[in-house]
């Protein structure tokens, strides 16, 4: 990690087109300005960490949900009341369309 000291109004250039400028210092709070093209994403790290944790929690099912689904799949839950889980009855098919009779042959 590169560590630099800057005073208010001084800047740091990253690459050819990103400029970070110290705007204000009040106690332990430093305000910085970032000048970068729209194609460069500038994000606060703590928000990225929070978003990653939220996504991880949303994608991780609860243990009881996993156990219930596992029981349904394995058939261990067949004795419970609720929707039928056995084989479905055959679906009735409509009758085949009638074909018109062939015209009589002239003979």
Q: Which key phrases capture this entry?
A:
alpha+beta; three-stranded antiparallel sheet; 2 helices; 107 residues
Can you characterise this structure?
The protein is of the alpha+beta class. The protein has a domain at 11-36 and 43-71. 25% of the residues lie in helices and 19% in strands. It has a 3-stranded antiparallel beta sheet, with no helix packed on it. A hairpin with a 3-residue loop joins strand 1 and strand 2 (18-26). The termini are far apart.
Brief synopsis:
The chain is α+β, with helices and mostly antiparallel strands.
Approximate shape: elongated
Query: What is the tally of beta strands?
Result: 3
**Poorly predicted ranges (pLDDT <50, ≥5 residues)?**
none
Record the strand order, biggest sheet.
1-2-3
Q: Counting H and I runs of at least 4 residues, what is the number of helices?
A: 2
End-to-end separation:
101 Å
Computed over alpha carbons, the radius of gyration is 35 Å
Mean pLDDT: 83
Helix proportion range: 25-40%
β content, as a range?
15-25%
Helix-strand makeup class:
alpha+beta
Largest sheet report: 3 strands, antiparallel
The ordered H/E elements are EEEHH
């Amino acid at each position: 990690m590169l560590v630099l000291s800057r005073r208010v109004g001084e800047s740091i250039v990253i690459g050819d087109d990103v400029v970070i400028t110290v705007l204000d210092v009040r106690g332990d709070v430093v305000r910085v300005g970032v000048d970068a093209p729209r194609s460069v994403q500038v994000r606060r790290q703590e928000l990225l960490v929070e978003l990653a944790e939220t996504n991880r929690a949303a994608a991780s099912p609860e243990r009881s949900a996993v156990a219930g689904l596992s029981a349904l799949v394995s058939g261990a839950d067949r004795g419970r009341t609720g929707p039928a889980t056995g084989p479905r009855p055959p679906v009735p098919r409509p009758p085949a369309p009638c074909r018109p009779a062939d015209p009589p042959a002239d003979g």
